[in-house]
Amino acid sequence: MIIKFKEIIIEIVEGKALLKQCGNLRTDRGQVCVEVQIASQDKPSHMGIKMANSSEGCRLQYLSHTQTDDTLILKQRSELIETTTVFTFYEDCNAIRVYTEVENISREPITIEEVSSFVCNGIGQKGIDSASDLYFTRFIQSHHGECQPETYSFPGLGLYRANIESQKRIAFANIGSWSTKEELPQGIIEDKARGEMTMFQIESNNSWYYEIADRMGEYYLYLGGANTSFGGWCKTLKNGERYRTPYVALAFGKNTNEVIGEMTKYRRHIAGKCAVDAYLPAIFNEYMHLSWDSPSEEQTRKIAPIIAKTGVEYYVIDCGWHDEEDGNIIYPFVGKWKESNKRFPCGVKATTDYIRSLGMKAGLWIEPEIIGKHCTEMLSYYDDDCFLQRHGKKICVNGRYFLDFRAKKVVDYMSEAVRKMVEEYGAEYIKFDYNQDCGVGTDYCADAAGEGLEQAANAYLVWVDAMRNRFPNVLFETCSSGGMRMDYQTLSHFSIVSTSDQVSHLKYPYIAGNILSAVLPEQAAVWSYPIDAGEIGLPLPYDQKWVAENISKERVALNMINSFLGRMHLASHIELLNEDQFALVKEGVRYYKSIAEAKKTAVPYFPNGFTHFGEKNVVSGFISGDMMYLAVWCLQGDKRVTVALDREIENVTLAYPSTSNATYQIDAGKLIVDFACEGCAAFFEMKQKK
After folding, report:
1. Model-level pTM?
2. For 322, which DSSP code?
């Protein structure tokens, strides 16, 4: 029997369900698409620590399958477990979403040590002899250096034929509560011989694991959450109990722009939605290069009238509206989430009311998952079971303990804190931040630390949804020291995410230039700070005269363009700009609003490929309908930037800034831009020929 459904072909051979095709991945021999290792059961493998050849993978027998218009459900069974693998398809994109559920059908408890969301063979037309044709792009992450794609050949990563199989893996395991601190849970496999690309993502807000490796002459892709070896995870199931893996997704295309475009269209099906965020409002946040951790009533009243003139819709007060400690020492004391009398003597509500009187909505920051180690009031209030813990001790990282949202007392207190922020302090925008990683997880009320982390991380998102449902007119942002939790489990619960805490306008283009490969343009918040000067965390030592002499119009325009591809988070001492500089900010906000609607249907466009830190120029954009929107940055060196367009253009407009001295032309299928100086940028609109 052969099961054919959309991009999937499964053949039933001698009772086993063998996956022979999933999109661009296909194999004549076929292989199992589920791997489950049960403790004490034989793992029939000489392949080291790989996830392939699990105890149950080789024992599973086909049980049944059902199909609907958009779903294929495959059931398999061994003596110990029954698995249900669900494939979901979407009409408007060449992508597939998959998860697997495992049920214990034995009489005794079993402990799962490894379980795949999905496994697929068929990478390369000639199996492992295709190594020289195969390339893998991984998306490197770091604080201030998010979304840096790097491409490697399979042999360069250690995969090549030495025997029919090896002990080598191309793999990565995120371990901890920052889901994207070292690498994004996504990758692109390119088969140059076939001219095809496959992109995957793992939708987990905690630990996760992927593996590309060889078995019996073929390469396979394994996607899933944590496991015993990588993430300290296991799960014990009694008879009839079930475990469901994280979702994973695969998209297929012929080139980088196409495959990312297909993943982008898929992401729109699962992305968090918020009615008040539907028109992608522009946001001002006091934190970056302005108040840092020390906002005040006086400063906000001084700056807010100027910000109102820019046209932004939200004004957000970040860390420091709470507690009485100075900003440079505040974090170990946070956790009460009560207004600061010292910084806001008339009360926070008086300040948010003032912001509203200027025609803007007001926002506040909170870090709901942590308690400072010196926050004695809350440490006395919470019971031990309210904290993530290992070995019976609370986990402490950089002066913070971590709250456990499985505990009702935590949920009740933090729900009340959010209620007060909205109803008593006047917040219409709340930024949920998360500035440390708890490590492998919590072994409290869990089978293992990784399993406890998974429970707690999911419980946090249940609470998030409760807050969003309770306060539908509040816009909730997710942030984790910038982009340290930029996964699509998180982004299915929020409509906007911080992409970085990068503090330099000349470095942010290296992030903004790649970010649409990882996050939808309507979700990806990017800082724009025309005056990124002075020391981080300290008041700006310069006055209006210094700003007029040292902040060029080109610098202001570049900052605005940094945020055009995603969501604008304007910041810094805008009130110090002179008339011409300020006019560029207002023009930038107006233009940002004018292209907001286009972003909601756009697909990313990387005409010169991905960018990397230190490159002389950056080019990135998106396409919506027959219009192309393109940001071009000249950061250093050659002031001529050449953009290799792969389509015919009817006309080109330099849309922003109106004061640009750049000249441009289309020549031999290329956009050539000549800038007057380094540290410049221009934003173009291009209509494509039909």
Report:
1. 0.97
2. B
